[in-house]
Amino acid sequence: MTLLNAAKHFNPLNKASFTSREQEFHEIAIRGVDGYDKFGDPSYLEGLRRLLYSYDHEAKLHKLGRMTAVYQTVGLLASRLHTERWFEMQPESANIEIERPLVITGMVRTGSTALHYLMGANPDMQCLQYWLALHPQPRPPRETWEAATDFQHARIELDMMYQAGKSMLESIHYMMPDGPDESGRLLGQNFSDDRFEVVSTVPTYSDWYMNNVHRETYQRHKRAIQLIGSYEPEKRWLFKYPVHMRNLDALLEAYPDACVIWTHRDPADVLPSYVSLCAHFRSLFEKDVDRPRIALEQKEAWARAVENGMRLRKGREHQFFDIYFDDFMADPLGQVTKAYAYFDQPFSERAKAALSAWRETHKPGQFGTHNYTRDDFGQAPAQIHERYAEYLEQFPRVLEKRERTLA
Predict the structure, then answer these.
(1) Which entry of 50, 77, 195, 334 is 20 to 30 Å from 20 by CA?
(2) What CATH number is attached to the domain comprising 123?
(3) pTM above 0.90, yes or no
(4) CB 135 within 8 A of CB 150
(5) How many angstroms separate the CA atoms of 198 and 280, rounded?
(6) How far apart are CA 194 and CA 213, in angstroms?
(7) What is the pLDDT along the chain (407 residues), one digit of tens a residue?
């Protein structure tokens, strides 16, 4: 039985509290994966229960938002079961070494998605494809993907997501079922990810998420990566997720030799764009979207993230390489070449041709543009720079480059 069929047997608009339905959500997920009921390490329950509490007492969910939150919760539980079953079927994959993965992270809206897609075209490396992030399993040969049920489900989900987002999502963050994806879907299976605070007002959950090191979540991320890459264990991995910067402690514990590509951009440019994105997502879940509150929360969350990143970087500078937004936009391949050289990643002629071909066929703005203004954030650049003073002091080129570009 598929999750969709299992979901037909419950009412997503049931007015009972989310907290009281925890067991029901688990049971629906179990039916959706044909009765498999081993959820693995129970540490995921802490995040799940805080989230359900926040849905009940703090979120301003409208009817569609409530229904979507139910489906999302059940879907993540089902994905967790799906992944645990693969762990059980492929126990030997846990022995695979993940050596010196390249990890793209930094503040949101810093060009990291464009960088990820470009580097993800390299046939000599492996990355996390969207459909495999949604349905983790050993990556099969490329020519079999279109016929795979899980791949087809991923394509349908993306189509539905773009329709619900009224096409705006495509211009903000374009995704393809066979394209590189962020790590959020894997982390979400442990209910410790920032997605929940992006789409809804969940301060109790957010406080827990921001003030804890999510070790179990990142150890499970590593286990899923071992599984997905088990047919090509010799290929080096490429990860990307801005939110890794918020969880760098846990990431570096799971991957102590990670090679971090830190993307930089003026926070006064980053935050208005991101708040616009968050407000759009939140409108799909909640009524009366509070942009000023989102702005304050995200300003603080990302300031703390970069400050923590600077702290963890001390003594391990050799594991970090910086890419500035304007440098990347001016010469994408040049920046990739430098990053590869810094981290000892060969850049074969085949790889150069693949990255060049990707650039030629995927032009900026191909899927529309994300229109926003700094007024969307509600704070002047000077106010933002004041909170990010420590970051700007360590990385002055963030502003210097911007000034040269405007001159």
Answers:
(1) 195
(2) 3.40.50.300
(3) yes
(4) yes
(5) 10
(6) 13
(7) 455 555 555 677 788 999 999 999 999 999 999 999 999 999 999 999 999 999 999 999 999 999 999 999 999 999 999 999 999 999 999 999 999 999 999 999 999 999 999 999 999 999 999 999 999 999 999 999 999 999 999 999 898 877 765 555 555 567 899 999 999 999 999 999 999 999 999 999 999 999 999 999 999 999 999 999 999 999 999 999 999 999 999 999 999 999 999 999 999 999 998 999 899 899 999 999 999 999 999 999 999 999 999 999 999 999 999 999 999 999 999 999 999 999 999 999 999 999 999 999 997 655 445 455 666 678 999 999 999 999 999 999 999 754 444 43
Rounded CA separation 307/176 (Å)? 33
Q: Please give the span between the terminal C-alpha atoms of the chain, in angstroms, as a whole number.
A: 61
Overall domain count for the chain: 1
Domain of 382, in residue numbers: 3-406
